[in-house]
Amino acid sequence: MKFLVDAQLPWRLARWLQDEGHDAVHTRDLPQGNRTSDAEINDRSVGEQRVFVTKDEDFVDTFHLKREPRKLLLVATGNIGNSDLEALFARSLDEIVHALETSDFVELSHDLLISRG
Fold it and tell me: What distance in Å separates the CA atoms of residue 34 and residue 74, rounded to the nearest whole number?
């Protein structure tokens, strides 16, 4: 699966996803880095068929209004340490991938994975 990881999530999450066999980039890897605009993120998500991974709920509104980004994984954990975030993804990755194969919007919390659209 192809992922684009947002600026407020750790760069090492994208590297971890790569280590797990996925095509993942972090906004830091883009030409404008973590200053990449929301519009450019949406364009890349659609053009490159990437799941956008974010904690930014503004993207939920854009998703519902415009169906952008292409697919959305909302990390709804509040503040979480990098190691705890990686552990959560490690426990949930198979379920996340499966949910994103059948849904365009998935929400991940500490103990729930919800397909929303």
Answer: 18
